[in-house]
Design goal:
The protein is mostly helical. The protein contains 3 helices and no strands.
Length: about 60
């Protein structure tokens, strides 16, 4: 994990501005809100799925023969 941090370095304001500019150039201003909406819904779905996994599973009754 530490090697990843050393490799990437610290992300500061200039790096974030550069990333935003590159995203604007690649996707354009009209497409970015759609991408962020999709990212948000994906994160919400992931959070709901992880919340469901943290709850203990209920035992189902065994079928009677």
């Amino acid at each position: 994990m530490n090697s990843l941090v050393v490799y990437l370095g610290m992300v500061g304001t200039p790096q974030i501005i550069l990333i935003v500019v590159v995203l604007l150039l690649l996707f354009g201003g009209k497409k970015i809100p759609e991408l962020m909406k999709g990212l948000g819904s994906g994160l919400k779905e992931f959070k709901n799925a992880s919340k469901d996994d943290s709850q203990p599973m209920k035992k189902e009754e065994e079928p009677k023969v």
